[in-house]
Amino acid sequence: MNNCEQENLVCPYHDGELDELRRLQVENHLTLCGVCRQRLREFQGLTERLSRVSVNGMSQMEQARMHWVVERARVDLSSRALMRLAMPLLGMAASLLVVTSVWLVDNGGVGRSARTGTLAQSDSSDWQRVAMNFHSDNKLPDWMVRSLGGDRP
Amino acid sequence: MEISDIDLARAAAGGDAQAFHALVDRHSAEMFRLALSLCGKRADAEDICQEAFFGAFRGVHRFDGRSSFKTWLTRILLRQASKTWKKNKARNATSLDLVDEAGARSRNASPTSPVGSVDASLDILEVIQRLGPEHQQVVVLRELQGMSYDQIAQTLGIPRGTVESRLFRARIELRKLLKDYEP
């Protein structure tokens, strides 16, 4: 098919999307131009054919699944918000755990015992020394120190 | 009195999930038909709709009310449909086989038989799948959704002049593709 300069106006003319003045101009042009008349017929045929197309709607099950997806999105958002809150707290707890472990290793025999894998008899004197230190600061009751030394209350 | 879409969207943005469920009830059927017109397969249409509603729920706080909620939702759905179209491009060989089969069926069927008319309807939807996403969108929005040029321009975020030229080219391409199915 040959082209016409005004051919691109056939589309909005066919869809009723031109203002009054341009619509009249196109109508006049159509009486003179076979190319545009042919194009208009093609578009009209296409629209007529597409108007007969029926697209099925969605079933109740499909709609229920849409709601389920929204619910999933809601839970997803809530858990993300919870994670945002929990992550700093978890970080703080982990830091506290590390600091406490270091403190315990530096101040008692726990670290060494843990490293050797046994709480051997030989280590008990370390425990006693630590306990006696606590005792000298009046941090442990007498019966507890005596029991560590093998005495019965 | 019915609550407007914008008020429901604002409530949803404020954390009211029920408000968003009301929006799903209002728009899901139309969105599904649009997705089905664009992709031609129910399973794909459902996936597209689900992704669109999922995205819309997560981004509802960004909805500013400058366009209608439906336009905003349609824009999300079209983006999703476009992604699906690109993802399925590799599978197009299979779809084209189906189109060719359907074409052969409609050529063989009598134009007056009910089978012929059902097939013709199917053919058109299948042929629409053969258009690129840009042409598909304007054809479906205009011919099947009945949107005006201004509404299409707002939904696609393109100038009105682009809608005119894109629709012109899309119709010519669709006409050419449909010619193969005419007896």
Topology order of chain A in helix (H) and strand (E) letters:
HHHHHHH
The DSSP helix count of chain B reads: 9
Strand count of chain B: 0
Q: What fold name stands as the CATH topology of chain B?
A: Butyryl-CoA Dehydrogenase, subunit A, domain 3
- End-to-end distance of chain A, in Å? 115 Å
The general outline of chain A is: rod-shaped
Report low-confidence residues of chain B grouped into runs of 5 or more: 96-118
Mean pLDDT of chain B: 83
**Distance linking N and C termini of chain B:** 53 Å
What is the percentage of strand-forming residues of chain B?
A: under 5%
Low-pLDDT sequence parts of chain A: none
Structural class of chain B: mainly alpha
Query: How many β strands of chain A by DSSP?
Result: 0
State the major sheet of chain A. none
Q: Write the H/E string of chain B, N to C.
A: HHHHHHHHH
| Rg over alpha carbons of chain A | 44 Å
Task: Report the oligomer.
Answer: heterodimer
Strand residue content of chain A: under 5%
- Helix amount of chain A: over 70%
Short description:
The complex is a heterodimer of chains A (153) and B (183). Chain A has seven helices and no strands.
Kindly describe this structure.
The complex is a heterodimer of chains A (about 150) and B (about 180). By secondary structure, chain A is mostly helical. Chain A folds into three domains: about 5-50, no CATH class; about 55-105; about 110-155, no CATH class. Chain A has seven helices and no strands. Chain A is rod-shaped and about 120 Å long. The mean pLDDT of chain A is about 80. Chain B is an all-alpha fold. Chain B has one domain (about 5-180): PhyR, sigma-like (SL) domain (Butyryl-CoA Dehydrogenase, subunit A, domain 3, Up-down Bundle). Helices cover about 75% and strands about 0% of the residues of chain B. Chain B has helices at about 5-15, 15-40, 40-60, 70-85, 90-110, 115-130, 135-145, 150-155, 160-180. Residues about 95-120 of chain B have low confidence and may be disordered. Chains A and B meet through helix 1, helix 3 and helix 4 of A and helix 2, helix 3, helix 6, helix 7 and helix 9 of B.
